[in-house]
Amino acid sequence: MSLATCVPQTFSSLILPPSTSLLSLSVLPVTNFSANVSSFYRYTQPSISFSNLSFCNVTLSYTHPGQNDNVTIETWLPLSTHWNGLLQALGGGGWQSGRFYLPYEGMKGAVADGYATITTDAGLGYSERSRDWALVSPGNVNLYLLQNLGSVALADEAAIGKEVVKEFYGKKPDYSYWNGCSQGGRQGVMLAQRYPEAYDGISAGAPAIYWSEVMAGTDWSQVVMNDIGEYPFGCEITAISLNATRECDGLDGVTDGVVINIDGCLGSYDPFRLVGEEIDCPQAPGGKVKITEAAAVVLNQTWHGRALADGTPAWVGWTPGSDLIGNGSGLAITNCTVDGKCKGDPVELGVDWFRLFVARNASFDATNLTHEEYDWFVRTSKQVYGGFIETDDPDLGDFRKAGGKMISWHGTVDQILPHKATEKYYNAVSAVMPDVGSFYRHYQIPGLEHCFGGPASNPTSLFQQLRAWVENGTVPESSPIELTVPSGEKQDRIICPFPQKAKYDSACGDEGLAECWACAL
Ligand SMILES: *[C@@H]1O[C@H](CO)[C@@H](O)[C@H](O)[C@H]1NC(C)=O
Ligand SMILES: *[C@@H]1O[C@H](CO)[C@@H](O)[C@H](O)[C@H]1NC(C)=O
Ligand SMILES: *[C@@H]1O[C@H](CO)[C@@H](O)[C@H](O)[C@H]1NC(C)=O
Ligand SMILES: *[C@@H]1O[C@H](CO)[C@@H](O)[C@H](O)[C@H]1NC(C)=O
Ligand SMILES: *[C@@H]1O[C@H](CO)[C@@H](O)[C@H](O)[C@H]1NC(C)=O
Ligand SMILES: *[C@@H]1O[C@H](CO)[C@@H](O)[C@H](O)[C@H]1NC(C)=O
Ligand SMILES: *[C@@H]1O[C@H](CO)[C@@H](O)[C@H](O)[C@H]1NC(C)=O
Ligand SMILES: *[C@@H]1O[C@H](CO)[C@@H](O)[C@H](O)[C@H]1NC(C)=O
Ligand SMILES: *[C@@H]1O[C@H](CO)[C@@H](O)[C@H](O)[C@H]1NC(C)=O
Ligand SMILES: *[C@@H]1O[C@H](CO)[C@@H](O)[C@H](O)[C@H]1NC(C)=O
Ligand SMILES: *[C@@H]1O[C@H](CO)[C@@H](O)[C@H](O)[C@H]1NC(C)=O
């Protein structure tokens, strides 16, 4: 309750789930804590600055006896006078479940707002990459750790977090919330599907729902290049992407740098129109290059999405204009020598999944897969790991019954996880649960990249709206965001629960005002 009770004895009768056994407990008062936290890392809450905060840091490690694992959960508890009665768990990102800078930033914001807040490393330690734990021996995957990451550690975290709260404050949280993006979004959706009682409210950003497709997707543009045996310069990809954004921007009636009518753009914009044009290109010898057909093929295939080797469409694609070259990481990045010879440079996330978990071989070279090999990898991934980590079950009946509310949100120019996958999931849920909108709503965010970044801001009111939905039954009908238009001006926009979209009322007269926009089908 106070710093004086922030001692191990306060937690001496902590009850852990019967499947676990405590290894160690550390209880440390933290004082004079200050931070500036960006809304980027809080996903659905505003930026916050604070200083001189005190809280109790309860960190414990436990094992699932017989599994030889060591899972660490870190909980920050504000003093009673500052506690808002709630628990907010922060999700992971990339290959990490928690206990790294992303959830730590989110936890700083949460504890400053008065939440008890929590993160779990799922037993993976501090490692940023799966290669440090994926294989127990050559050919043998560490299935227990994969299972911890996929689901089990999430259930433990919720149960233990509520107990830690109870020991400190004398009562369990009034409501518990999940807040995550990407891997953290997937964790949120897993919780709704498999542990429907764990959280009352779940905010799942850019969720990696269809895990095998997510992993495959990070390599798709590279497989297209391998197919044609050509590796275009990044500048070519960027030139076509920018041209597509500019050409398709106005299709929705408002020219603001963001493509809203994505299918219209796919139907009308021809990525091959720039082939043969000379552009400036810092990567190319002489600083200039003629745009190749290969570059257009890569974009065409990336926008249309994964297809099998025989051409059969297999998965959703990325929005034209998404940044596939990124800032050192992107799906279509190539690595070029000074004399202009390029090769593919696939994102490690997906390559590691194929190499370590599907091929189960740390020396397997998954960087230049043929299309047939790639198809095999995706198929095998689904067969072997479906129950471990995929979160595509559309039946959320138990979550609805438990009274849970979930919000998912996804930027339309997400350059890593195509936002249409979350649309697909929402549609799948709607198909089996026609009342989906009464407990689960999905928001597409035009102009937002993966979790944060791009011309659109994060939906910084959404978490509070989720709370109002859970605690007061106030349904989140729309939510404000800010859009930076090409002139640099910041304009107000709203985001809407899918399948509604924000529609501009031209009679209203100012597209920069939120009140000139309304949600409509
Ligand atoms: C508290 O932290 C600030 C910097 O954040 C530092 O300047 C100050 O000396 C600290 N106060 C105490 C009492 O440690
Ligand atoms: C937060 O930002 C302010 C203003 O830039 C700065 O003075 C302060 O040192 C920052 N605090 C921390 C903990 O970084
Ligand atoms: C910081 O917080 C402590 C504990 O609440 C308090 O005693 C102290 O006066 C605060 N310091 C400042 C500079 O506000
Ligand atoms: C909380 O305690 C754990 C374990 O001692 C430590 O690793 C972590 O850095 C602490 N966090 C803070 C914010 O003090
Ligand atoms: C478990 O992991 C934590 C954090 O990585 C570490 O501090 C602790 O020593 C480990 N415990 C055992 C028994 O290995
Ligand atoms: C990758 O393999 C394809 C044939 O499948 C070949 O055309 C291409 O040159 C290879 N790329 C590299 C960088 O080895
Ligand atoms: C797209 O590229 C074409 C071909 O160079 C050019 O004619 C057109 O003006 C470009 N569109 C925009 C909006 O920049
Ligand atoms: C673009 O991709 C689509 C889907 O794979 C394909 O049907 C179409 O033929 C491609 N266009 C060109 C010009 O290659
Ligand atoms: C590009 O390739 C070179 C030579 O194989 C390699 O040393 C370098 O690390 C690569 N750069 C990147 C960014 O992958
Ligand atoms: C792992 O991959 C390497 C390189 O492709 C190959 O030489 C080796 O035989 C593979 N090992 C196993 C156990 O499959
Ligand atoms: C619930 O409604 C009450 C009364 O209007 C209000 O004070 C409170 O802030 C609401 N709670 C949330 C989480 O919005």
Q: What does this protein structure show overall?
A:
With 521 residues, the chain is of the alpha/beta class. The chain folds into two domains: 3-212 and 390-520, Rossmann fold, CATH 3.40.50; 213-385, no CATH class. Helix content is 32%, strand content 22%. The chain contains 13 helices and 19 strands. It has a nine-stranded mixed β-sheet, with helices on both faces. A two-stranded antiparallel sheet has the order 6-7. It has a two-stranded antiparallel ribbon with strand order 10-11. Strand 2 (48-63) and strand 3 (71-78) form a beta hairpin. The protein is globular. The relative contact order is 0.11. The model has no long low-confidence stretch (mean pLDDT 97). Bound molecules: 2-acetamido-2-deoxy-beta-D-glucopyranose (NAG) (11 copies). Residues 52, 54 line the site of one 2-acetamido-2-deoxy-beta-D-glucopyranose. One 2-acetamido-2-deoxy-beta-D-glucopyranose (NAG) binds next to strand 13. Its EC number is 3.1.1.-. Keywords: Calcium, Disulfide bond, Hydrolase, Metal-binding, Serine esterase, Signal. Belongs to the tannase family. This is Carboxylic ester hydrolase. It holds the Pfam family Tannase.
